[in-house]
Design goal:
By secondary structure, the protein is α/β, with parallel strands linked by helices. The chain has helices at about 25-35, 55-70, 85-100, 125-135, 145-160, 200-215, 225-230, 230-235, 240-250, 270-280, 310-320, 320-325; strands spanning about 40-45, 50, 115-120, 140-145, 165-170, 190-195, 260-265, 285-295, 295-305. Helix 1 crosses helix 2 (about 55-70), helix 3 crosses helix 4 (about 125-135) and helix 9 packs parallel to helix 10 (about 270-280).
């Protein structure tokens, strides 16, 4: 039964101003870029073109179309049962990370492959490195504790030639380590990004998946769709988001001279309060929190650095001002 047509805003105003996904999905353009998507597009109850967002295959092909249309990714796929991330939200994090770098670089976003970003938990989808490289030319190190995820991300890089040499994948051999074994003392990282596991247990993760599916579907669903939620290490860890972020802060102390900005996505307000206390104990020299919003969901980017002002200035002038020197030659 058709309902009265909804009036939708032309732009998703809560997304970052530079986010390519502020406008509603143009399925005509997307299906032209990725004809495979057409079989999943139909009119919804408001007579709008859409897909069934409760169908994991439809969501995956939509992601494939978005990555091809906006980021020139010709070949992208993920293994069955692995996390299929929302592209607009991932893009938001990258753009706010760029603003964070700009805030220290005399109002200019540092761009180019000399800027190195670490993606903690790159996943099988490799989406943060794809967007960051396409938008700003940054090079990436993507780490993960899952060999299958690293293998999948490696195939994506190898299948899209412009990414080769720009994205390096590293397997974390010790699941308890976040930076050790991945970051090298003599390898400067300008910024790290991370989307930490949200839940504290498998049962909690499955419950969250069911809530999401039931919000998307009018029919009551009692069993989670395996391909919708992601692998265990993508969704949950002991202690959940709060413990993971606190471990990350404590471990980042070992690399105070190796990374300018450490950042993490924070979903729960309660996590933020505890993280502030941990950052104070860790003697972070600067902490900032950037609010982010996608649709009805609110999250934030937490960022911290251990570099003193003089160290920051030296870092900026030696690494981020290279472009200016080259342009003036």
């Amino acid at each position: 039964m058709l309902k009265e047509k909804k009036e939708h805003p032309k732009e998703k105003s809560r997304l970052h101003p530079r986010n390519r996904h502020r406008e509603r999905y143009d399925f005509k353009q997307l299906t032209e870029s990725c004809p495979e998507l057409s079989q999943y597009v139909s009119l919804n109850m408001y007579s709008d073109e859409s897909i069934d967002f409760a169908d994991p295959e439809a969501v995956k092909i939509l992601n494939k179309a978005l990555l091809k249309h906006y980021y020139a990714i010709d070949n992208w796929d993920i293994p069955e049962n692995y996390l299929c991330p929302p592209i607009p939200g991932r893009a938001d994090y990258i753009h706010y990370a760029a603003d964070l770098l700009r805030s220290k670089n005399y109002g200019k976003i540092p761009t180019g492959n000399q800027i190195k970003i670490l993606d903690v938990g790159v996943g099988a989808n490799c989406v943060y490195p794809i967007i960051g490289n396409k938008e700003y030319g940054w090079s990436f190190i993507g780490s993960d504790i899952d060999p299958v995820a690293i293998g999948s991300a490696s195939i994506i890089v190898a299948s899209n030639p412009f990414l080769e040499g720009r994205i390096e994948l590293r397997l974390q051999l010790n699941p308890k380590d976040i930076f050790f074994g991945i970051m090298q003392k003599d390898e400067p990282i300008d910024l790290s990004v991370c989307n930490p596991p949200f839940h504290a247990s498998m049962a909690e993760a499955q419950s969250g998946t069911l809530r999401k599916l039931n919000n998307l579907n009018q029919d009551k669903i009692t069993e989670p769709i395996l391909n919708f939620g992601g692998q265990n290490n993508e969704l949950w860890c002991e202690g959940g988001e709060e413990r993971f972020v606190n471990d990350m802060i404590r471990q980042s102390r070992q690399f105070i001279d190796s990374c300018f900005w450490f950042t993490s996505l924070i979903s729960k307000q309660s996590t933020l309060k505890v993280a502030y206390e941990t950052l104070k104990k860790a003697n972070a020299t600067e902490v900032t929190t950037v609010p982010m919003g996608q649709g009805h969901k609110t999250s934030r980017m937490l960022a911290w650095t251990f570099l003193e002002p003089e160290q920051q200035k030296k870092w900026i002038n030696s690494r981020w001002r290279i472009q200016k020197v080259n342009l003036n030659k």
